[in-house]
Design goal:
This protein is α/β, with parallel strands linked by helices. It has five helices and seven strands, in the order H-E-E-H-E-E-E-E-H-E-H-H. The strands form two sheets. A five-stranded mixed beta sheet has the order 1-2-5-4-3, with helices on one face. The protein has a two-stranded parallel sheet with strand order 6-7. Helix 3 links the parallel strand 6 and strand 7. The radius of gyration is 22 Å and the shape is globular. It starts with 7 loop residues before the first helix and ends with a helix. The C terminus is likely disordered.
Length: 203
């Protein structure tokens, strides 16, 4: 573990020395933040899923990284996961964000767990499973995190394809566990339906 604060370019060089050709692309973005204009850098690295764990291990050699979140998005033919870490936390002007972006084709939405390296990752991994239909291989706790146990299997709220939440399911969501006799919400329930709900629920 390095005691010296590394510049963003040195961080990238360290990761290149460990991952080599597994790094598909790198970009370093700089900005200043706050009234004192403190410089801040973000490193964005595209890798394959097979390189995810070696990449996290390489970060751990610098300083035990803080996992901010695993972000995810349906990009069409793939699901993109972005593992956003903060490294060199507590180092004056040395903290840096490092994002490992991994594209998973929808024909194979599996990715290895990193919870054996960063235990707190399991919560964000559970969220990606239930909201994007990703299968995290080796996850020690695969239970749902936010969705209820009776939420339909095979429907993933963040997906934009046929496995996303169907329109009819959203349309009637407001009825669930609503107190009897309570008026319908005033907002429209779908395109071109403004006003329908008030007429329906006020009688």
């Amino acid at each position: 573990m390095s005691e010296r604060t590394l510049a963003p370019e040195e961080l990238v060089e360290h990761l290149r020395s460990r991952l080599g050709a597994a790094i598909r692309s790198v970009s370093i973005r700089r900005r200043v933040q706050g009234k004192k204009k403190v410089p801040h850098a973000t490193i964005w690295i595209d890798i394959g899923r097979e390189s995810l764990k070696p990449a996290v291990e390489a970060l751990r050699e610098i300083q035990f990284p803080h996992l901010s979140v695993i972000a995810g998005a349906d990009t069409g033919d793939a699901v993109r996961l972005c593992y956003i870490f903060s490294v060199q936390y507590g180092h004056p002007k040395g903290e840096c964000m490092v994002t490992f972006a991994v594209d998973l084709p929808k024909t194979d939405l599996t990715v290895p767990t990193i919870s054996d390296l960063v235990p707190g990752a399991v919560f964000s991994e559970r969220e990606k499973q239930e909201f994007l239909g990703v299968r995290v291989v080796g996850i020690p706790d695969g239970r749902r995190l936010f969705l209820p146990e009776d939420f339909p299997e095979g429907i993933y709220p963040w997906r934009k394809d046929e496995t996303g939440v169907p329109a009819g399911m959203v349309r009637e969501l407001w009825r669930l566990r609503r107190p009897e006799g309570r008026p319908a919400p005033p907002a429209g329930r779908g395109p071109g339906e403004n006003g329908d709900s008030r007429a329906e629920g006020s009688g």
